[in-house]
Design a protein that fits this description.
single chain, about 100 residues, mainly alpha, about 0% strand
Length: about 100
């Protein structure tokens, strides 16, 4: 170690052995930050938006289910598997797409 490095090491505060790693992390007071606080949700976000999302999801599910059932009757012996897969994938996509809005998942 060079002489300058040893002088710098002496000037740095020593770490106590009984302090954990989390106690050495700089703590930032978030209350002093100047970020705008989020407004509480209004009646639209609380009541109307979930109802609209559920309605749209129901219409899409009913439309896809009706269309695949109508086609599946003419498709042959494997039509039941196709209908089941279509319904399952439709529900999965609707949950991913609308579940965070409606909360109905």
């Amino acid at each position: 170690m060079t002489e300058e490095a040893s002088e710098q090491a002496e000037r740095l505060p020593s770490r106590k052995d009984n302090m954990s790693e989390s106690e050495n992390i700089l703590v930032v007071n978030r209350r002093d930050s100047k970020q705008a606080e989020k407004a509480p949700p209004g009646w639209y976000e609380t009541y109307l938006q979930p109802c609209i999302a559920e309605f749209v999801g129901l219409i899409i599910f009913a439309f896809v289910g009706t269309m695949v059932t109508g086609y599946g009757a003419k498709a042959g012996p494997m039509w039941l598997v196709g209908i089941a897969l279509c319904h399952g994938l439709t529900i999965a996509l609707l949950i991913v797409g609308l579940g965070h809005v409606s909360g109905g998942h």
